[in-house]
Amino acid sequence: MKKTFTHCLLTFLISFCYFQLTYAQSTKSPQKIIIIMMDGFGEDYYRNSDMATLNKMEKEGLFKVVPSLMPSITNVNNAAIITGETPDQNGITGNVFLNPASGVEEYMEESKLVLTPTIFERAKNAGVKSILFSCKTKTVTLLNKGADEAISRETVTPEWIKRLGTPPAIYSSEINYWMMDAALYSLKHSPELGLTFIHTTDYPMHMWAPESAESKQHLHKIDEYLAKLIKAAPDAAILITADHNVKHKNFCWDLEKALATCGISIKAAISPEKDRYFKHHLGLGGSEYIYLNDQKDSSKVKQALLGFKGVEEVISRSEAVKRFHLMPERIGDLMVLADSSTVFGHLENSESDDLPASYRSHGSLYEAQVPLFVYNARKAPSLSYFSYNYKLASWLYQPVAQKVKVIPVDPMATGDGIKMIHGTHIALYNPLKPDKHKLVLMITGTGSTAYGAIKMDSCFAEMGYHVITLDYPNNINSIICKNSSDSTSFDHFREEIVTGHPVSVNTDVDSLNSIMHRFKKLLQYLAANDADGKWSEYLEGGDPAWGRIILAGHSQGSGNAGFLGKLVPADRVLLFAGPQDYLAKFNKPAGWLSAKGKTTPSRYFSFLNQQDPFNVNKQIANDMKLMRMDKADTLHVWPGKPVRGHQHILITDTPTPDGTQGAHSSVLDPQYVNVWEYMLTAGTDEKPAKN
């Protein structure tokens, strides 16, 4: 059955671009789906327990022991199972991470950190209602997007307490039974629910070994609940896997303290295992991210770490990205892997410690094998499809359409002397879409990674454009120049970032790491390594073919895109929420804005929000200088409504639908795909500039 949805693809469905699709599971008579993520359920727990129902499911359905993802911890694997994507795509690399924007260690608990759609969002787009049950609140706050209802022990509503009583303590096996009872209740009383996701806690596994009587009793009771689920929904497909195993560990290192004892200072050592459920594992796990003060320290730190008992491997960020499919901007410079009996994490009073015989944890490669069950599922893929645990439900509610191809590229791989600032560059295109034969170069704002405009980039790719978003030096905010008594402050700031000429006192960018050089080397790299992408079309004599390239930028990036448009004859320039280059002491726009340039002024377009905290009136004044206007030709626009006219400065006052983005970022929301399309295609009397 075909349906048309307003949406766009990142690696699958994202809202607001348009195309025909069909779903892998028919929405005419969708099968009810029950997914269970049994936290900490390794095969040894299964084989040591009396689980007659699960034995039946193994024999009558599909069964396989599969790898889980690294680090072998809950967030990484749960996010991958719920999105059907690896961490390099969904963005979840641990229970905690060092936020590159703030430089502060933060829990990964907010849904905005998830960069790809959840199964609940896919189900909603297929017309299927869903519910999420989790013992752990972090799952509900991180992975609930699209779910019609989401319940955890800490967020349970009075209605649920009235139905089933107060949930037991989080540090108990009984909380798993309560969640199973809640799932059974919803199956019996809410027949409209088509997707039920249940996430148990691994507290029992942290407390008891597989062969213990307590563990056997706990899992036997879980098995009884599986029988009840089958009875309550006999036609439902039941899909089960785990995030990791749990095993005994006897020794711990505090790697930051241990390195300090060796006279080596680092920025941070972060255990991705650390979460708010301290009693489970004390925040200790079998892998750790190391953040360096200086990249030059890498070899020295690596050699020191390899000298510590229990450290099995130390790998670079690029190797960790390649080997474990991690998002580079959300992991450390180095990743440390433990042997089977060692963990890493913060210790209060020592650099190392022996652990008690009862201590059990995970996070290493030694806990990264789990069972996977697919029972009574219509049109499930063959057993060979399930190569990892995250593929458990990745085939459900998927549009039968080619995904946008997203290519992450390590900047350091593109040329000598080029540094990684935040993470990878990204390049996108959709090989099934009619090719526009134009490339959009997107330049993000202050502190943003290349993934900062991924939804917009994906929509551009769905329209048939090739897209590149650069990782580049953008940590210094351009408004540092606002109150300068030097009228050329903004001019020099832009020139150094875009060209690498050493002219600014406010930033330090060499020619190899300038926007122009990084873009050129990335294009050359793509042309040499992705022939199917036809990137060579955007090169002439080894240099960018600017007449086929559209420059775009958000916030600080809009100023960089505008400045670059002065230097090269681009097809057009798209400015989002900027530039901010207004000289307060001179009460006028920066000089570079009105300078003659190689891109035709009538091919500049801007999109602003009336409520932007950076002052929309000054943004308009800046844009008018770029466009050589004496009078602003502004036009108010709305989400989803056709943009009619010939104006170049487009203004909205509409926030994002979910309220997650402020006015300054709202112009990047896919609800405005109608505005973007106008900016990309609006005609002028002049032809695009040629090289």
Automatic annotation (TrEMBL):
SUPFAM superfamilies in the record: Alkaline phosphatase-like (SSF53649), alpha/beta-Hydrolases (SSF53474)
InterPro entries: AB_hydrolase_fold, Alkaline_phosphatase_core_sf, BPSS1187-like, Phosphodiest/P_Trfase, Phosphonoacetate_hydro_insert
Pfam families in the record: Phosphodiest
Highest taxon listed in the record's lineage: Bacteria
Signal sequence range: 1-24
Molecular function per GO: hydrolase activity
Key words, A-Z: Signal
PANTHER family, alphabetized: BIS(5'-ADENOSYL)-TRIPHOSPHATASE (PTHR10151:SF120), ECTONUCLEOTIDE PYROPHOSPHATASE/PHOSPHODIESTERASE (PTHR10151)
Name assigned to this protein: Type I phosphodiesterase/nucleotide pyrophosphatase
Source organism of this protein record: Pedobacter cryoconitis
